[in-house]
Amino acid sequence: MSDVKNPRVHAEILPSLAAVVVPTTKILAIGSVTDKGTPEAIASIRPHEVRATVRNHLTGRIEQWFSQTGGHAVVFILNAASIAEAHELLEKLPLGVAGMMEFELIALGPLAPLALLIADLPRS
């Protein structure tokens, strides 16, 4: 577990979870259009982006895809073992190559507090 405190987790359970190691199994990717991504520029690339995204879905790299309600962001759940792996995949998509989309990447793994329910805790 990193030294960065996560405000989304109750501080009382952090010491108990500090030794629990969970692998990264998914990456949550939230995309935003950059300044280069004007509607006209995106329109010319959109058919290529759609085909590349579908290809990645069919190969299992993009497990799920959504759009943010009330916003314009694309949200992917990727099957990737690291932020670097996810970044590499997304940068190869046409909008990434053109510098028209960037992603916030969040590593996900099994729910660590479940380890507290079993005696044999995975430790670092």
Show the helix and strand layout:
Elements: H1 14-17, E1 26-33, H2 39-58, E2 62-67, E3 74-78, H3 83-91, H4 94-97, E4 101-108
Antiparallel strand pairs: 1-3, 1-4, 2-3
Helix content: 25-40%
Q: Based on the coordinates given, report the CATH architecture of one domain.
A: 2-Layer Sandwich
Q: What is the CATH superfamily of one domain?
A: Dimeric alpha+beta barrel
* Terminal residue distance: 9 Å
Quantity of strands, as a count: 4
Beta-strand share of residues:
15-25%
Mean pLDDT: 87
Cα radius of gyration in angstroms: 18 Å
List keywords for this structure.
single chain, 124 residues, alpha+beta, Alpha-Beta Plaits, 4 helices
Any overview of this molecule?
With 124 residues, the chain is an alpha+beta fold. It has a domain at 36-109: Dimeric alpha+beta barrel (Alpha-Beta Plaits, 2-Layer Sandwich). The chain has four helices and four strands; from the N terminus they run H-E-H-E-E-H-H-E. It has helices spanning 14-17, 39-58, 83-91, 94-97; strands at 26-33, 62-67, 74-78, 101-108. The chain has a four-stranded antiparallel sheet. A hairpin with a 6-residue loop joins strand 2 (62-67) and strand 3. It is elongated, with a radius of gyration of 18 Å.
Quick summary of this structure?
The protein is α+β, with helices and mostly antiparallel strands. It is 30% helix and 22% strand.
